[in-house]
Amino acid sequence: MRAVVFVTEQTGKGTERSPQEYVDPLLVLTGEAYAHLSFEALHRRLCDALRGDASQRPPSD
Q1: Contact, 42 vs 27, CB < 8 A?
Q2: Does residue 24 contact residue 10 with C-beta atoms inside 8 Å?
């Protein structure tokens, strides 16, 4: 499974390593983690990331 990457409109694209890579994505999950994550948990993690406090909440998945 591939990774799942969430970005905003302002997320820069293109790094020295790869032009397809995002500079500072909002949230990155493995394909397996994404497949097993409930919508509620995904929503919570995205909201935490948008608020900038994702590191303050322990993962619930």
Answers
A1: no
A2: no
**DSSP helix/strand/coil, 6:** strand
Tokens 């909002």 label which residue? 26
Instruction: Tell me the residue length of the chain.
Output: 61
What's the pTM value of the predicted model, to 2 decimals? Answer: 0.72
Q: Cβ neighbours of residue 8 under 8 Å, at least 6 residues apart?
A: 26, 50
Dist CA 44 CA 27 (whole Å): 12
13: β partners: 22
pLDDT digits (tens, 9 = 90+) for 15-49: 889 998 999 999 999 999 999 999 999 999 999 99
- Give the count of alpha carbons within 13 A of 29, CB side only: 18
